[in-house]
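step 4 of 6: structure.
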Amino acid sequence: MLGKVLVRSERGRETARVITEVEAYIGENDLACHASRGRTARTQVMYGPAGHWYVYLVYGMHEMLNLVTGPEGWPSAILIRGVEGMSGPGRVTKSLGIGREFNGLLAVPASGLHIEDRGIVVPDRMVKRTPRIGVDYAGPVWAAKPWRFLLNSAPLTNTP
DNA sequence: ACAAGGATACCT
DNA sequence: GGTATCCTTGTC
């Protein structure tokens, strides 16, 4: 998803930003994943088919935007932690006007929020991997998984 | 360094 | 119905 473009459309106005930082949460075994506690009203969307948004509130004030991935029945999602000019997952949603009303919606243009490939090239050597942020509670094994990915320089724009 | 802030999951 | 905890940010 790095280098792909997050597109928010609202009443004919479109805001597009390149995704620069993401984290993976993979399955019930992953103790940092909300689905590690099983299927609940909140985590239900992660058990569904890929391509739907999973949006939840954390710390009582920040909306986290995740895209459901993986096959049906295997709860997994990618948290969008950063877009160009915006660092931090709470700022991503706030700056684009994204809230829990998107939870469960399919990531297609008609829903007002989707992801596009606009030809930006991201070679592997431009991608940095680190452990995920704020997941110490998951224990040393799962907190150490290098499942945070970010661009370590500006992406190469493929000008048509 | 730490408060703000509300939902969630799990307990009684 | 009570409570510990949370995939954070801004201000102290």
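step 5 of 6: annotate
 - The mean pLDDT of chain A is 94.
 - The longest strand of chain A covers residues 13-26.
step 6 of 6: archive
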